[in-house]
Amino acid sequence: MPDRAAAATHALRRAWRAAAWYARGLTGESRYESYLAHELAAHPERPPLDRRAFWRDYHRWQDANPQGRCC
Amino acid sequence: MSTDTTPTKDRELPPAAAPVTRTRWTPAKIALWAGIALLGGLAWVMLAVVRGETVNAIWFVFAAVCTYLIAYRFYSKVIERHLVKPDDLRATPAEHLANGKDYVATDRRVLFGHHFAAIAGAGPLVGPVLAAQMGYLPGTIWIIVGVVLAGAVQDYLVMFFSMRRGGRSLGQMARDELGRVGGTAAIVATLLIMIIITAILALVVVNALGESPWGVFSVAMTIPIALFMGAYLRWIRPGRITEVSIIGFVLLMAAIVGGGAVAETQWGQDVFTLDRTTLAWAIIVYGFIAAVLPVWVLLAPRDYLSTFMKIGVIGMLAVAIVFVRPEIEVPAFTSFASGVTGPVWSGSLFPFLFVTIACGALSGFHALISSGTTPKMVEKERQTRFIGYGGMLMESFVAIMALVAAVSIDQGIYYAMNASAAATGGTVEGAADFVNGLMLAGVQTSPEVLAQAAQDVGEETIVSRTGGAPTLAFGLAHILQQWVGGASMMSFWYHFAIMFEALFILTAVDAGTRVARFMLQDSIGNVAKRFKDTSWRLGAWICTAIMVAGWGAVLLMGVTDPLGGINTLFPLFGIANQLLAAIALAIVLTIVARRGTWRWLWIVGLPLAFVAVVTITASILKIFSPVPAVGYWANHMAFRDALASGEESFGTAGTVEAMEAVVRNTAVQGTLSIIFVSLAIVVITTSVLAVLRAWRTREIVDREDAPVPSRRYAPAGLVASKEEKALEREWAALPDDQQPSRGH
Q1: Quick one: B158 and B267 in the same domain?
Q2: What is the mean pLDDT of chain B?
Q3: What tens digit of pLDDT does each residue of B531-564 get?
Q4: Is residue B146 left, alpha or beta, with left meaning phi > 0 and alpha meaning psi from -120 to 50?
Q5: Which of B275, B316, B424, B705 is most buried, by CB atoms within 10 Å?
Q6: Which segments of B200-342 are extended strands (E)?
Q7: Is residue B708 part of a domain?
Q8: How close does chain A come to B106, measured CA to CA in Å?
Q9: Which residue in B294, B517, B744 is closest to A34 by CB distance?
Q10: Residues B218, B208: one domain?
Q11: Is residue B557 part of a domain?
Q12: Predicted pLDDT at B2
């Protein structure tokens, strides 16, 4: 029995993690993490922006590069 | 196409592309696809041939889903293999131009969601509702067949070719492929079309909120909610978008519930009962402010809410339709299918059905999203089939569900809600007389029924709530209450649906104004250099004001139109959208011809020819038809003559001012029709000439970016095959410093 319970918890935890991963991707929350990964890979010589500074910078960039929404 | 993409394999990395293998047709696989084909065929027979007394909604779901599966599995693969020819050994712009901002390689499943949220809006919900006046069958066939052969093809090809060009926009591709004249015509047409589309979307919201204190209160509350979310993300917990979206969603539900309470109080009714003209002005002012404010204040947070609502509501409706399986109230064809003067919109089935339902079957606006934004995030070339073709199939399914919602409500209520106020007089008695006077078999209503229906959804009245959104909300509430909550929840679900539509229409309005403002600055910048600088505050304000004035004027015209607004303007919306599709397909046709893919050119030529014939015929009818209900100029002349002969009321216009308004409006609409169709003809002709030249010279013109070898791998479709999984494992086994960075 404990085996089965453990397997069920494990499956639930996996499902939760998958849902959270998808939600973060869809809303764009994970943008910062991908920025960090990009900076680490492409520009290891400079310190990356922190989360707050990154989002300020990103919104500034969005102001200058609007993206349409469809009808 | 460039042919020098020699597979440059890095010695230390696994291959960047899975071998393309022919499917082995095992008996199980054959049985599965035969089963899908049989079920789909049965569903089509039930809808089109049997059409008993009543048809169950579940057949719509089967017909749609089975057709989509077959089209995706077979037709889109033919397009991929013979026309697109993606190459996973080539790096996508997201890989070789990676910048951590817009060029970010994104997991295909996440990007599918992103792309879907960006393309699906109010269009696929509103069009099918209006098309229901011809019966359920014409709309169903066009939505499903249209998406397979036209809409999804356009989205897929535009996305792929834009991706091969570093994510260039449709306008830039038009200039590259069609030269100065064709390119300029395409850009001017796009700008005008954006004005029209924004105006008509705003008109849909105004019609849904007019004289509805509940709706006005809850939609107005989205502004403080979005401001709060923006502040939260800026100062309290930067970047925690999921968290703030959940908080925002809870507040939104509270605003809907609260709206019901507020609308019951005297002060609530006094403050929030607004007539349509006031609301139109409110949206114009709002649209200007939202478009000049920084995005983090209002636009970005409201976009998060709208994405949440969109995916949530659509998912819920799909589940509800499967659980409730409503019976359809509409015949396959109504008598309006063979006439030209339906009460919801006028015009014959061909060509007007095909412009009334644009989004969901074929939407030119998608070409603007499929070029630019999404292609910069695609991780591997082969994924464009899933994201582009597959994403559009999803939108088509949304349109089918909207159609089901519209055809499962009582027909008397449907016509009472969608006939213009000029026809019903805006009263339940007038509406009942009008509907009963239509003499439709099995369609009967009474003032009591209409008054009760309004009370059920917590509104003063449901008569002449044109624009499609209220009808859809009514249908959605009708289905959802059978699943959750029963009749007492009807009013909540109605306002929930109105909120959901208003949210993403308003997002589309300010995002559209912003995008159009940048396009306008770019165009004016060719003459007055200063305008090219988009950070120049005054220039930005001037161009925003011009765009808002453009759509605002059309919106006010629609709101005050004595002929009803939606029924005269909606065809213009559809024609504009489909002309944009024709322009996008013309650009794609040129590209495909110049790649030398002559044998499969018909894949693009077929939808282009169809949409060109539809939109040009529709435009010509709108310009030249002698029937006043159809032709703008015929109506214009009829009202002018009436005024000239000193009459003081004519048709549905009761005063001289109203008659003058009709004369003005029809002139504007007629002129716009002429401009649209001329621009589209210029673009299509330029493209056909380019294709003929390519045929004569057999010259390959290649404007793609130089190929860069890819150093990453991801499967192509939603579910990875066995070979793809094995390759993924090989890549996953690499040490950390050799792993490609993946966004999201």
Answers
A1: no
A2: 92
A3: 988 888 899 999 999 999 999 999 999 999 888 7
A4: alpha
A5: B424
A6: 327-328
A7: no
A8: 9
A9: B744
A10: no
A11: yes
A12: 40
Q: Say whether both B337 and B387 belong to one domain.
A: yes
Q: How far apart are CA B529 and CA B326, in angstroms?
A: 59
Chain A hits for B240, CB-CB cut-off 8 Å, are 29
- Same domain? B254 vs B280: no
Q: Residues of B numbered 109-138 whose beta carbons fall under 8 angstroms of chain A's beta carbons: which are they?
A: 109-110, 113-114, 117-123
**Which of B241-245, B499-503, B505-509, B567-571 shows the lowest mean pLDDT across its residues?**
B567-571
Q: Is the domain of B278 the same as that of B232?
A: no
* Partner residue facing B295 (CB), from A28, A40, A63: A63
Any domain includes B174: yes
pLDDT number for residue A51 = 95
Give residue B695's region: left, alpha or beta (phi > 0; psi -120 to 50). alpha
DSSP state, B610?
H
Q: Is B111's pLDDT higher than 80? A: yes
| Residue B263 lies in domain | 214-272
Min Cα–Cα distance to chain B from A60, Å? 8
For residue B413, how many C-alpha atoms fall within 13 Å in the half-sphere facing its CB? 26
A49 at interface of B, judged by CB pairs closer than 8 A: no
CB within 8 A of B568, min separation 6: which ones? B558, B561, B632, B665, B666, B669
Whether A4 contacts chain B with CB within 8 A: no
Six-digit token pair at B504?
Answer: 């993403």
Q: For position A1, what pLDDT does the model report?
A: 57
Q: Is A68 on the interface with B (CB under 8 A)?
A: yes
Identify whether residues B253 and B383 lie together within a single domain. Answer: no
Distance from CA of B687 to the nearest CA of A (A): 25
Q: What is the DSSP string of B383-429?
A: GHIIIIIHHHHHHHHHHHHHHHHHHTS-HHHHHHHHS-HHHHTTSHH
**CA–CA separation, B264 and B488 (whole Å):** 16
Per-residue pLDDT reduced to its tens digit, B314-367: 888 999 999 999 999 899 999 999 988 889 998 999 999 999 999 999 999 999
* CB contact A16 to B (< 8 Å): no
A31 touches chain B (CB under 8 A): yes
Same domain, B566 and B542: yes
What total number of domains does chain B contain? 2
Q: Does A34 touch chain B (CB under 8 A)?
A: yes
**Taking CB atoms and an 8 Å cutoff, what residues of chain A touch B204?**
none
Does B194 share its domain with B247? Answer: no
Report which of B473, B531, B528, B463 is spatially closest to residue B497, judged by C-alpha positions: B473
In a domain, B428, yes or no: no
Count of residues for chain A?
Answer: 71
CB contact under 8 A, B238 and A51: yes
Q: Scanning the structure block, which residue is given the tokens 């304000």?
A: B541
Is B541 at the interface with chain A, CB within 8 A? no
pLDDT at B6: 43
- Distance, in angstroms, between B307 CA and closest chain A CA? 8
